[in-house]
Amino acid sequence: MAKLITDEQIAEQKSYIMKLKEENMRYAAENGHTRLALTKTYGCQQNENDTERIRGMLEEAGFDFTEDDNKADVVIYNTCAVRENAEQKVFGRLGILKHIKESRPEMIIGVCGCMVQQEHITEKIKRVHEHVDLVFGTHALYKMPKLLFEAMHSKGTVIDIEDSDGMIAEDIPMKRDDVSKAWVSVMYGCNNFCSYCIVPYVRGRERSRTPEAVLNEVKELVSKGCSEISLLGQNVNSYGKDLDMDIDFADLIRMVNDVEGVKRIRFMTSHPKDLSDKLIDAIAECDNVCKQLHLPFQAGSDKILKEMNRKYTKADYLEKIEKVKKAIPNISLSTDVIVGFPTETNEDFEETLDVLRKVEFDNIFSFIYSRREGTPAAKLDFVLTDEEIHHNFDRLLEVQNEISKRKNDEYVGRIERVLVDGVSKNDENTLSGRCDSSKIVNFKGDKSLIGKYINVKITQAHTWSLNGEIV
User: Fold this and answer.
1) pLDDT in tens, 134-145
2) 153 and 218 in a common domain
3) Is residue 269 domain-shared with residue 402, that is, in the same domain?
């Protein structure tokens, strides 16, 4: 069972929050404005959830927030280690901040998260980016107040990337920008060790929060007006295996479903090998659980799945999908796909396309394989050329785009219940939200509708979104 960070350890961090707050009050009195913090998140929903904790601690410490690098007194980048592109973006941003800090030396620059939990990355930051003041890994997130205080009073770089596997910190303040929906972490870490994936090395082994802790957070969110809860974990299907009680993820979903005020429940991510009949039944039977399932299959070839250490076959995956479709006929399905795993051949890739055609996913998240130092797959030689891999990737998108458009066409004429998220990114006069299946719906409406559920008649289908009009 996971160990909790003790009350004494949390109390120590709260004392540093008060120290920071006192300094910020003095600063505001002398300068006429409070210090400003900027946070930026790279990577997955777990990182987004972690950043909400960082922002919660900063807010309690008296910081206001900005999105302008030139105005920020504290900048914290919460980083991702899953793909090389995310790392390069962070290093690029650090180069820009170096020039800003030259004119504002009191500025504090921090880098945290999965990327810096890797020792070779932290060494590179120390060597190449000496202007970075603070580096802390995933296991030290709860210590941020103390580490930030030390960084503000130290000439050297403050670093904490110590591995403290199996620990969970509760009672950390959170700042969420969206009041109508929220991510709630139910567990941390991963035990699967897929050969291409760095996550178990940077986030540690699986450790579940107690159902009481999860339900208390859900109830608190509901009391503040939140109605859509997304349960979060690297592999939620493993929830409860490390707890000293007879409970699994299907049980937890039913508990959340019974919380008064919860209108929608989503979850991610599920590992196919752990998707149980019991969980499928829970999705089908719980009124508030969205009829949507994200189930990554990654590759269609049994040879590649074995070399990825995924612990299921193509036939196993398709059998589970058929069970899901039978139990929940109108379910919306999405998945993750990796193209160009080192040993993948063109014949292997055809098996991946075959899965797309057989399952007919509503949506996919597709990636070209990215070599991660420290993983078994990083030692493998590539069979295909870079040109062949990109050609296959384009073919994958071509096949899926046709399927997604066809699936979306089926929505035209339907009336969908939509939770309004906000203004569309492409048109400030258009609102955007999601229906039960998580499809994006755009429509004209007043901004006062943001955060509310409304009925929208679907009038037009695109490949990745739907257009509609308020009924």
Assistant:
1) 999 999 999 999
2) no
3) yes
Closest CA to 53 of 156, 138, 151: 138
- CB count within 10 Å of CB 43 equals 19
The arithmetic mean of pLDDT across residues 334-362, rounded, is 98
Q: In this structure, are 181 and 95 located in the same domain?
A: no
Question: Which pTM does this prediction carry?
Answer: 0.94
Structure token digits, residue 300: 């269609």
Evaluate if residue 166 carries a pLDDT over 70: no
- 199 close to 190: Cβ distance less than 8 angstroms: yes
| Residue 127: other Cβ atoms inside 10 A | 8
In the structure encoding, which two tokens stand for residue 192, read together? 């699967």
Residue that is written with structure tokens 């509503």 in the block: 362
For residues 53 and 60, what is the distance between their CA atoms, to the nearest angstrom? 11
